[in-house]
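Exercise 7. Predict the joint structure of the components listed below.
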Amino acid sequence: MEVTNRYIVTKTHVDGAPEESHFELKTASLALTVEPGSNDVVVKNLYVSIDPYQLNRMKSYSSSQSAIYFSVSITPGEGIDAYGVARVVASGNSKFEKDDLVVGLIAWGEYSVVKEGNMLSKLDPMGFPLTYHVGILGFSGLAAYGGFFEVCQPKKGEKVFVSTASGSVGNLVGQYAKLFGCYVVGCAGSKKKVELLKEKLGFDEAFNYKDETDLKSTLKRYFPDGIDIYFDNVGSEMLEAAVANMNTFGRVAVCGVISEYTDGKRAAPDMLDVVYKRITIRGFLAADHMNVYSDFISTTSDHLRTGNMQALEDITPGVENIPSAFIGLFSGDNIGKKIVKIADE
Amino acid sequence: MEVTNRYIVTKTHVDGAPEESHFELKTASLALTVEPGSNDVVVKNLYVSIDPYQLNRMKSYSSSQSAIYFSVSITPGEGIDAYGVARVVASGNSKFEKDDLVVGLIAWGEYSVVKEGNMLSKLDPMGFPLTYHVGILGFSGLAAYGGFFEVCQPKKGEKVFVSTASGSVGNLVGQYAKLFGCYVVGCAGSKKKVELLKEKLGFDEAFNYKDETDLKSTLKRYFPDGIDIYFDNVGSEMLEAAVANMNTFGRVAVCGVISEYTDGKRAAPDMLDVVYKRITIRGFLAADHMNVYSDFISTTSDHLRTGNMQALEDITPGVENIPSAFIGLFSGDNIGKKIVKIADE
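Solution:
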């Protein structure tokens, strides 16, 4: 059986803020079968993850592109791999059977052909919506869990600041930190997001950074006794302001620097603070923390079942809407994990 | 008995590069006795340490001034405490007797009155010159040892870059790293220093940064396979260039940022590199590593006795020359540990 597969490609490299004109919806016929002797797995995509880091892959050049296999350069005109949940339609790999639910690196499209060796595993939904496995129980969740517990090494009562706190990772860091017994302040880019952080997710405080003119003073106001942990998703001025307000032996976990992705503007923290306050600034990727994967899944699913944690999701339907969903990440359109629903389950 | 004590003070705060006009040699009569009931210790200073960090104490404001007791602000017109070796002339403290050699926080002057609770201990020279206890066996040595072994966590064969490699701490980091089995490249600011690093101290390579126009390319040339550890003494452009050349899981130990002390110019490392290469940038102070103090002393004194390590010292005589010795730190005049000899032993 053959279908017409619709999928998203970039038309050129993207070296600034992404725009609709950078993207194209392509169609190609695809056989829903596997050649004899091939180990390919053909899957029908259900939900795909929309993440800011993809922009670094779209650039003509980014140092990120040589870092790890899923961060390699995206070639204009070719399919774009992304994390997501799918259903197997044909398998040449004995690990997968037709109709299996799977999670892993699929594509921004209706179908994906997953080669052997690529990240793909069978998915047990454990009674949760499938979208949870793209976000809170997927790599966004692992980034938050590994980044907070492993990189930040929190102690109860410490003061935690989270930027892009209503984003896919930030909202979870704040929830983990609160459940762990920290004081948590988040920043976000709208009044609605700020209210949500405080009222739905239990942040102690939150503020809209767009209302502030001097971020150092703002953070001083929210942290009169200083910041112990800064979970950084934005970089640039916010990182500078956080370092200025950090306590001795403070830790900065750098998960992402979205403000630097589009314009290359750099953070310039005061290194005198770094030395004298003995601050640690550490970059990390979720994939580094597979050692805590089973803890992450059991802890998070327990919290979800008891209602102690909330999955904050922002789901758009339709493969054709992937570009706008992606573009919206850089103007703060999403609230929580951005997911595009490709097909009914 | 009373003497005329000559000592150095600042005339004003110093908010840029230090100049002779910022300093003054003051005189005051001093009783070489201790009042009954006082715990003071009066010492005759022999050697005092001349360190870049003192500039941060001289500023009208620096975030460093609230970090730790020996980094507090220096008040214009008042004596300046500094690490050094001295001999007790009178003691109200039962731990010290007349003629004891001591090491600790004394003053930029001929005599010091050390209050109880200030850092001072009896010194066993262990057969080494007294100056070694100001530098290689003092806080410079501990900064190098603790910074390299504890903060950088080196593995044999790793590639290490050291800036201000002929400075008081840098030259020791390079020597420790070589003895540990690392590949070591240092940078310094003159041909003479570069030769010394390679010929006397055993660095694998060294270069004069003043001869280079593009530090990123320079480091690429010396580290075609990347840098695993950067021991940073300068900050700014060199930190940026090192981060750009670092390997995955690279570590930056920030011991000092001398290039940022005088002009406030900031380093702006590429945070995308920090994230994707999972780089750790960590500031530290020697005082944080007292836990390895006895290891440091035994290892270093063994290396000195076997001739595996060299003490690189730059000694100027005369209390009146403290300002010029200090000013010279910021133009790279010193080669190795800068010490002013105050009196014959």
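Discussion. Residues 293-306 of chain A form the longest helix (14 residues).
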